[in-house]
Amino acid sequence: MISGKTRSFALLATLLMAFTLVSTDFADARRGGSFGSRGTRTFQSAPPTRTAPNTTAPVERSMTPNTGPTATTRQQQPGMAQQQRPGLFSGLGGGLMRGILIGGLLGVLLGYGFGGMAGALGFIVQLLLVGLVVMLALRFFRSRQTSATAPATAGGPAASGSNSREMFGRMANRDAAESERPAGNGRAGSFSIPGLGAQSAPASQDIELEKDDLDRFERMLDEVQTAFAKEDHAGLRRLSTPEMVSYFSEELAENAQNGVRNDVADVHLVQADIAEAWREDNQDYATAAFRYESIDVMRDRKTGKVVEGDEKLTETIELWTFTRPRGGDWKLSAIQEATA
Questions:
Q1: What does the domain layout of the chain look like in residue ranges?
Q2: Which residues fall in a compositionally biased region of kind Low complexity (predicted)?
Q3: CA–CA separation, 15 vs 6, rounded Å?
Q4: b/e per residue, 290-312, with b = 16+ CB within 10 A?
Q5: CA 118 to CA 112: how far, in whole Å?
């Protein structure tokens, strides 16, 4: 029968778990974090820049599928498990040992000793005999297992040559990819463009940006902030990709449900530079590091009173990724939080 203390403990554990889940959902729904898509580089860290010198974590929320090495690793696990040595109580030797021990223990419990031998001396002698039999059996089965797996371990000429070809083939492919990777340096306007190629994906090609592109990024920083503060959905659709519009709309709907609105004003760009710019097929991407000041508060929708934040300038560092079809207009496709 369950005691009162056990029931109280179970109830407390359930309440703590429920509270943790609620807290996690609330934290995930708050504004901030990293979201959007950066093409094939969505789940790669952008290179550090003068504006954002520390490595920025990859995007957390994205509609881009994450095709990482997890699937390959899982496929290799069954083969690795087959190569592992069986445990002490596995196989025929393990079955023999278990049978002897269980039979002996039953004999002791029934008062007959191990095999009917009486007295402490007989008990000790029979234990030694059991240990000797088990040791010989295990040695016999291990020697058979070693002889059976020796050819596979040693590897014949055909198997060894195949593995060598695969290994050197992978190294050759990697070296070829690194030798073909372009490295470009340049400057445009007030933005500095470092060498781009350390994290270039096979399907992407680094590109150079024009000063007009960089000026456009600077204007879009203020335009997106203004459209979000005014809850201008048409403006957000004009400036952002459909994925980013969905994230913005979700946040605006949550603010409306909570009876607040996010007021962002006096956006002033302090420093900016380009982390990387590249092309995938006919789609261009560029990630810019922004350090800007703004007044960012939450106001009551009815009274306009500040309910969260302070009406003074605060500094923010973020990475904004823009994308466009080749020859088209730039749109915001990702935002990542950064640190100084």
A1: 34-63+179-337, 86-148
A2: 37-58, 74-84
A3: 14
A4: bbbebbbbbbeeeeeeeeeeeee
A5: 7
State whether residue 216 is helix, strand or coil.
Answer: helix
DSSP lists the bridge partners of residue 204 as 280
Encoded tokens for 185 = 């340096």
Region for 28 from its dihedrals, namely left if φ exceeds 0, alpha if ψ lies in -120 to 50, beta otherwise? alpha
Computed from CA positions of residues 24, 26, 29, 34, in that sequence, does the dihedral angle turn out positive or negative?
negative
Q: What is the pTM of this model?
A: 0.56
DSSP for 97-142 reads HHHHHHHHHHHHHTTSTTTT--HHHHHHHHHHHHHHHHHHHHHHHH
Task: Give first-to-last CA distance, the chain, whole Å.
Answer: 59
Task: Give the chain's radius of gyration (CA, Å).
Answer: 33
Give the dihedral sign, CA 216/222/223/228: positive
Q: What average pLDDT values come out for the chain (340 residues) when binned by 10 residues?
A: 52 46 35 86 95 92 79 41 42 48 48 48 67 77 62 40 38 41 41 46 82 96 96 97 97 96 94 96 96 96 95 95 95 93
Q: Which residues pair with 280 in a beta bridge?
A: 204, 283
Report the candidate in 289, 228, 245, 243 with the shortest Cα–Cα distance to residue 62.
243
